[in-house]
Design brief:
This protein has 17 helices and 9 strands. The protein is α+β, with helices and mostly antiparallel strands.
Length: 507
């Protein structure tokens, strides 16, 4: 069920403002006098609204009390949320003031559980309306705190909400102020940050489904781009707040999916903008690669069979060195996400979609090709990607580790294509079956690749001069992965045979 019929749409980007930039940003536009806003967010004891991606708050601004509900709808871009705001009679939420279908939706989430305050935000807000070519954007500078019990987080936010015009207007303003004042994209709203204080960090977010309503190739491109960027950004909080290894994995998955999908579209409608974005995604992913490899390696220290081979104290020294390398790599990812490159990448991707910038410099025939049926493009693309996997895997028993890795890369692209395009193709059972077979092959190829590459990573692990047992353990780990490399090869052949026989009549 969805409350969409009761909603308006909020088109907004939010940024973290460095203290040094506050004064300059305040002078950028004609901001009014500050107003004190106190917002109390309500939920059930088990945070049913949070689990559904909904925020419910009562805001006090002077004598006025307003009731606000916000949520994200499937198919909306990163900058767009559904919202509803009405007057509220007092300090506790009066859901009866909402439209019946929205009130019914919220009642279904809470299931008669009582509502209670979860956290409170208190900010001083100054606003200014900034005229842009083609529209206007309201800028709001918020300074204050988010408080949940004994825990609190500082607020130094700049929110930019589109008031008139289309989305490119919003991204044009962001392009002016972000580099000038060193702003950084806020991946989590105040409500989401409050929940992180009240209930713990957010969990990792897996790949989001692409709406099956896309009819043209261009609509499919917009939807696919939006889901990848949203998955990438929505995993920032889980990683930054909780050092969540799964969130790190999903960050890289989002970037890989994006690169694969952009390549699919670029194959039929070459566009420099798509290639440039794909290159930037590859650069960000490369900055996260080491951290993910240390995560894959970490479970080795808990394997009893391996520990029995190691000298006394070796596992402890090896684990300490491994932990140090892993923490350093995580710090690098934090710096990447909190730096200018990640913010610039997201704004470039979302701005490209808003402007349909892939049309720039294209011929009339190339632009017309974007109106081709999405389902036909999907089937054509998946057939081509499957042929590429089969070609790269020919003579599998004789392939080198590097050649097997190329098979795996091609297979990943096919998997991402199947997962993304499935809603357009019908035959859900057959597509799920094929995806499961391809996924298994991808997993065993991944295990073989890990065995081939992690040995080299371990071999380069720095150990303290006095950690003789740790160095001996490191050498044992190198040999351990070499042995695994041989055993995993046999698993690849069985999975490869199943893949070649997999039914594709649904294409």
């Amino acid at each position: 069920m969805s409350p969409q019929s009761a909603a308006g749409l909020e088109r907004e980007l939010a940024f973290r403002v460095p203290d040094a930039a506050l004064e300059g940003l305040a002078a950028f536009a004609a901001f009014g006098r500050p107003r004190r806003l106190v917002s109390t967010y309500w939920d059930t004891a088990d945070f049913a609204f949070r689990q559904a991606g909904v925020t419910l708050r009562v805001r006090q601004a002077g004598r006025r009390r307003s009731l606000g509900v916000k949520w994200r709808e499937r198919g909306h871009g990163l900058a767009t949320r559904a919202e509803r705001e009405v007057d509220n009679g007092g300090d506790t939420p009066d859901l009866g003031r909402l439209e019946p279908d929205l009130a019914e939706y919220l009642a279904g989430l809470r299931r008669d559980a009582p509502l209670a305050p979860a956290f409170v935000t208190t900010v001083l807000r100054r606003t200014a309306l900034v005229d842009q070519k083609g529209g206007a954007v309201e800028m709001a500078l918020d300074q204050g705190w988010i408080v949940a019990g004994e825990r609190r987080a500082r607020v130094r936010d700049c929110e930019c909400e589109l008031k008139d015009g289309d989305l490119p207007v919003l991204f044009d303003l962001a392009g002016r102020i972000v580099p000038r004042f060193g702003l950084r994209l806020l991946a989590a709203s105040k409500g989401e940050r409050g929940y992180a204080l009240a209930a713990g960090p957010a969990g990792a977010v897996k790949a989001l489904p692409v709406p099956g309503s896309a009819e043209t190739m261009e609509q499919l491109l917009e939807a696919a781009l939006g889901t990848c960027v949203t998955q990438f950004v929505r995993n920032w909080p889980a990683f930054l707040d909780g050092a969540n290894a799964e969130a790190l994995h999903q960050l890289r998955v989002a970037l890989r999916r994006l690169r694969a999908l952009l390549s699919m579209f670029h194959h039929e409608v070459p566009a420099p903008a798509l290639e440039a974005l794909r290159g930037e995604a590859a650069r960000l992913a490369k900055g996260m690669a080491d951290a993910r490899e240390w995560d894959v390696l970490a479970p080795l220290t808990g394997e009893e069979d391996f520990a029995e081979l190691c000298p006394p104290g070796g596992i402890e020294q090896f684990a300490a060195a491994l932990g140090k390398a892993r923490r350093a790599s995580y710090a690098g990812v934090v710096g990447l996400l909190e730096g200018p490159d990640a913010t610039g990448f997201v704004l470039a991707a979302e701005g490209l979609a808003a402007r349909r910038g892939w049309r720039d410099g294209r011929t009339d025939d190339e632009v017309a090709a974007l109106d081709a049926p999405a389902a036909a493009f999907a089937r054509r693309t998946l057939k081509r990607l499957r042929r590429r996997v089969l070609k790269r895997g020919k003579g599998l028993a004789r392939l080198t580790d590097a050649e097997l890795h190329r098979v795996r890369v091609a297979l990943k692209a096919l998997r991402y294509g199947v997962d993304t395009f499935a809603p357009l193709l019908g035959h859900p059972r057959k597509t799920r079956r094929f995806a499961a077979i391809a996924s298994h092959l991808q997993d065993v190829l991944g295990e073989a690749n890990d065995a081939a590459t992690l040995g080299a990573l371990v071999g380069g692990l720095r150990m303290p001069a006095r950690a003789a047992a740790g160095r001996a353990t490191r050498e044992l780990a190198v040999a351990w992965f070499e042995a695994r490399r041989t055993s995993h090869r046999s698993n690849v052949h069985a999975a490869w045979r199943a893949f070649k026989k997999a039914d594709i009549d649904w294409l």
